[in-house]
Amino acid sequence: MAKFLSVVLATTSLLFRLHVLEVALSQNAVETSALTHTSIVLPSSSAVVSAVLSATSTNTPLTSIEPSSTLSLTSTITAAPPLTTTTSFNPSSGPFPPVGSFPRDYSPAGLAKLWDVVGPVEVPPITTTVIPQTPIVLPSPPPALYPSFFAVAPEDILPDLKFPEGFFFGVASAAYQVEGAVKDEGKGPSLWDWANRQPGVVVDNTTADVVDLHYYLYKEDVARIAALGVNSHSFSISWGRILPFGAADSPVNQEGIDHYADVIATHLQFNVTPVVTLFHWDPPLALSAYYGGFASPNIVDDYIHYAKTVFTAYNGSVHTWYTFNEPQVFCSELAGFPFNLTLPNGVNSSTAQFQCSYYLLKAHAGAVKAFREMRITGEIAFKSADYVGMPWRANNTEDALAVERHAAFGLGIFADPVYTTGDWPQILKDTLPPDYLPRFTEEESKEILGTADFFAIDAYRTYWNAAPPEGIDACVKDFSNPAWPACNLEVMFDLNGWASGPASDPLSPWLQATPQFLRTSFKEYHRRWPTSKIIFSEFGFTQPFEGTRTPAELFQITEDTERTNYYMTYLGELLLSIHEDGIPVEGAFAWAIMDNAEWNSGLSARFGIQYVNYSSPTLERTYKRSAFALSEFFRQHLQN
Ligand code: NOJ
């Protein structure tokens, strides 16, 4: 889990002001949580340690009142479902069974036992696939932001620069975060179905049991993005829907196979290219119960089997595949509560992240090998995350080293083995003993190197890096240092205390808008991990405090100016990156298609370009300004 450090920095004598500022410990800069806070002194000469930030919860109950004036903006659903019980549902589940003790019983009774580990699940208000009224007619767009010297209209941003032919203008989602219907049609529980019920894990105590109910509303969701001109959707398949027990020797769930076949067919019908991720952080709970999931070598064959099953089922209708979403974030998550309760014997919170990284890379490589041997048509990679930063203090050798450490522990840990060396970054090997970070044999290195056809990067932001106050060497030698093993700090403000960019919602403290660094970042990605094609696989922003607003404030929710500016400035810089810097970017995917379950921040941190009314049984979607801005931007900048 992310450890965010609150620092009161009494800056040098040049600046006699106190700033309350946040520094995220970079080796754990997990994008989804701000639950743990510690304090540090930085820099040691002049800083004063301050109070600790408290986690911000926006657990505001939503009302069911909707202003009638908003109706024309919202989606239409033809089925009339019964009223939801959302407000009275009380999520809770017991402790995780001792790892290895759970019997492998692949019968319906065995599945029920797995669900017992999760506890009661909320029944969705809709239980069949909804056929939407199509075509979707877009409501009238918002008026231009005023004046134009405050915000340039999307079509007037670098109007002569175009995206390359065939460019993916996409939105993104992930199964756990949007589907809901978690127990329907034979699905087995995922680890997050259990984790979100553990005390303190999700700030607003919400589950993803229902969330957007994309599982039944996907036809409308696809039609709605197609209406914007979106030409691709990056979504994930839930392993537990395909193989409820996860394991290679366990039965396939035909309903799951059929479901995604129709999801994919629907995309094709609307001319929206499906881009499919096999694993977006939702492992089958069974595999953790049987052997400890991704902290065990057993995961490798089970994952490869799952991948082959999916390739076989959808070969020909999906062209672009990802094996894993942001593996660095997923594996660091395993070290923290409650996932640390699911580790097998011999793996602990300190070693879990690196054991997981090792097995996950082997699983990735094995799946790509199968993909190639099976002659699946198309291309495959994994989605990287994080950034290559800049030294906080220019010309400071320690901070320059901190940048390298950040790049190695964040991106390099997966990108170096796959794209350039077949091995871990040297910095990792110099820091982590083999019982933490297993070393690759020569054969494993050969199997891993070259197992991606392109480079995909979720590039939400770029910051500075600094050495820890006690120095990098001292940190590297000290296992108990909170910055160990990455031993660098992520700094979101400059030397004078000014932020690198506008803040997003307090529930995503890791995120500030930093378009000014986008071109440098993409140059670095391309220089360090060269490929002939890059996909900007996710970017997005939480409009500050949006999650605290009620449906009655819909007209304020849809006016998401900061998110809109984030997208417009990033896309403008992306065009420059392509045209001025020659970076071969061939797609950009806005996170997210709609509001969704943002992991530890639940339903309160909202990333959607569409609002979802969670207090309504029909879960209406409403386009926000950002959706129109993206649509306009692409209309102007896609080749005809
Ligand atoms: C990247 C992750 O892939 C996604 O699941 C998450 O919701 C977004 N970042 C925003 O935090």
TrEMBL record:
Keywords: Hydrolase, Signal. Pfam families: Glyco_hydro_1. InterPro entries: GH, GH_1_N_CS, Glyco_hydro_1. Gene3D superfamilies: Glycosidases. This is Glycoside hydrolase family 1 protein. GO terms for molecular function: beta-glucosidase activity. PROSITE patterns: GLYCOSYL_HYDROL_F1_2 (PS00653). PANTHER family: BETA-1,4-GLUCOSIDASE (EUROFUNG), GLYCOSYL HYDROLASE. Belongs to the glycosyl hydrolase 1 family. The keyword Hydrolase applies. It comes from the Eukaryota. SUPFAM superfamilies: (Trans)glycosidases (SSF51445). Residues 1-26 form the signal peptide. It comes from Lentinula raphanica.
